[in-house]
Amino acid sequence: MKNQIYLFLLLIGGVLLFCCKRDYVSHRTDDTNGLSTKSAKRFLKDNTQKFDGNELLVNLKSQNLTTSFLANGELNWNAKLDYMLEGQQNLEVPFFTKRNTVTLYNFRNLMYDETESDRTLRASYSYTNIVFNRSKLTDSVHAILVTYIPDRGAIEDLKYYKTGKRMTLNNLDTEFSGYIEYRTLRNEVTSVFYIERSVLRKRYSIKSTGVSMRSVASRSQTCRTECTPIYQMVCVSAPERGDGGEVCTQKYVGENCVQVCTEDPVDPENPNPGGQTPTQPGYPITQMKQLISNVFIPCPEMAEGTESRAILENELMDLLSGNSGASYACFTEKMLQYLSNQASTSGTKLSLCLDAGVPQAGYNPVTKALSFNNNLNIRSTNIFHEIFHAAQDRIYQNGITQYLGNQGKAEIEFETHLFIDIVGRLSSEPPAALNDTNNEYRNFLNGLTTDNNGNRNLYNAKNYFTDVTGQTQSYVNFKNKFKEKYPSYSTPNYNLGPKAIQYFLNNFNCYL
C-alpha cells in the first residue's frame, strides 16, 4: 500500500512539474458536448491570473508604454458564438472596449494614398474577439485574440458600420476587405491574414525586429521588413453600444517594425479565417517581362538592369499578381495584352522613359511616350493610369491628341478616373474621383459593380455603358462635378462617350 501511495505522489509531482514549464495553463475538460462556456471561462481565469490578476499586458516598445488590455473592457459572453471550423470546435466571444489599440497593417500596394482621417476611421472600426478552441495537437483548451482591421474603402459597406454586427471567423462579412490578426494571450502576433471581400488572399507570419525603417526586398525573398503605425482610440462608446465608433479621440502611439513573411496556411493550433486557404495567384515573371518587351521601347535610363527598370517591374508585378487588388490584376494584364497586339499590328511601340518635365507621370499621345518624373513616381497607381491613357489613344478614332488642352481633356481624364474607381470598387477601394460628401458617387459605383444578388461583378456596368453616346444623366452630372473638383479640366463639353470603358467591358471579360 505504501508503495502505491509513493508511486501516486511521484506521478502527481511529475504532472505538476510538466505544467509549470508551460507558458500558460492548459487543461482538458470532461464536457461531452465539446467546448463549453464554463471551460472557456476557467481557461481564461487560469491564464489571466498569470498576467497580473485579470489583465493582459500590451507592450508598445516605441513609447515604452505598457497598458492594460482586458482591464479596459469586458467580454460579452451573452453574444458568444459556438461553431465548427476546419473540424475544430470554436467559441468566439466579443470583447467590448472604449480604449482600443490597433496596428494598422498595410502590406498591400495600395492604389490610393491613405490619409490620417483614413487611418483614424480604420482604427475606429477595428475590434477584437477572443476565440477559444481545442488545440489540434493536444485537444486541450486554447485561446487567441482575433482582431478584425478593415481597409478604408470597405468600411461603409460593412454590417458592423451599419448595424454594429460583428463578424466571426466562420462567417466573414461578404463586404469585408482588410486584415485579420491573431495574437496569443501574451499579446504576441502569430499570424496576419489579408482578406479581399471575404476571400482569403494571403497569410503572413510576423516576427519582431529592431529595424526602424522599411526595407525593399527583392522578389526572390519571402520576407521583408514593414513598419506599421499603432493607434490608440479612446471612444465615448464602442460602435455596438450606440454612439458609433467614429466618435473617438485618436492618438498615434508609435510604430511597430516587424519581419513579414508570406507562408503556407499551416497552423497546428488555429483555423484559417473562413476555413479557407490563400487564393491569390502569382504571375510568371518571364511573362511580365515579355509584356514589357512587346509594348515598350525603353529609354537608356529604363533599360533592363537599371534601378528604374527594377522598380517598374516590381510595381508591375504587384499589379499583375493581385497585390494591389485582384481586379487590377485582370485589367492590367488585358490592357497590356491589348497594347501588345496594337504594337504588333502597327509596328509602333511606346517609349518608356524618365522625364523631369512631367509632374509625376504622364502619357504623351504625340510622342507615344509613357514617362515618370523620377524613381519615386514609378508607382502602380501611375502605371495603371497612364497605361489606360495609352489604350484610349488607340481606341478613340484618330487618337486622343485632338482632345488635349481646351479641346476635351476633361472628358478623357474623367473617363480615366471613373474607370479606376470602378476597378477599385471591385476590390473595395474608396472612390477618389470626386468630393463625395453624401456618398452619391460611391452609391453610383456600387450599383455598377454589384449585381442584383449582391455579388461584385461588372454585369450592371456593362448594361449601363451600352448607350453608345455615354451621355446618360448621371454620367454627365458626375463629369461636371469632376470638372468642379479639378478646375484645370473645366473645358467645354464635347459630349464624348466613354469609349475605352465600353471597349474594355465588351472585350476584356474581367469580372463578367
Summarize the structure.
This protein has 512 residues and is α+β, with helices and mostly antiparallel strands.
Strands, helices and their partners?
Layout lengths: L1 H19 L16 H12 L8 E4 L4 E4 L4 E3 L5 E5 L2 E10 L1 E5 L12 H9 L2 E8 L6 E10 L8 H5 L14 E6 L5 E8 L2 E10 L14 E13 L12 E15 L22 H11 E3 L8 H15 L4 H21 L3 E5 L6 E4 L4 E4 L7 H16 L13 H18 L13 H10 L9 H6 L8 H13 L13 H9 L5
Parallel strand pairs: 14-15, 15-17
Antiparallel strand pairs: 1-2, 3-5, 4-5, 5-7, 6-12, 7-8, 8-9, 9-10, 10-11, 11-13, 12-13, 16-17
Helix pairs in contact: 5-7, 6-7, 7-8, 8-9, 9-10
Q: Would you mind describing this structure in some detail?
A:
There is one protein chain. The protein is α+β, with helices and mostly antiparallel strands and 512 residues long. Helix content is 32%, strand content 23%. It is built from 13 helices and 17 strands. Strands 3, 4, 5, 6, 7, 8, 9, 10, 11, 12 and 13 form an eleven-stranded antiparallel beta sheet that branches. A four-stranded mixed beta sheet has the order 14-15-17-16. Strands 1-2 form a two-stranded antiparallel sheet. Helix 5 (285-295) crosses helix 7, helix 6 crosses helix 7 and helix 7 crosses helix 8. It is elongated.
Give descriptors for this structure.
512 residues; alpha+beta; eleven-stranded antiparallel beta sheet; 23% strand
Helix content: 25-40%
Total of helices:
13
How would you sum up the major sheet?
11 strands, antiparallel
Provide the low-confidence segments as ranges. Answer: 4-33, 49-68, 210-221, 241-246
Gross morphology is elongated
| Topology pattern, helix = H, strand = E | HHEEEEEEHEEHEEEEEHEHHEEEHHHHHH
Average pLDDT figure: 80
The percent range for strand residues is: 15-25%
Radius of gyration: 27 Å
Structural class: alpha+beta
Question: How far apart are the termini?
Answer: 79 Å
**Strands, total number:** 17
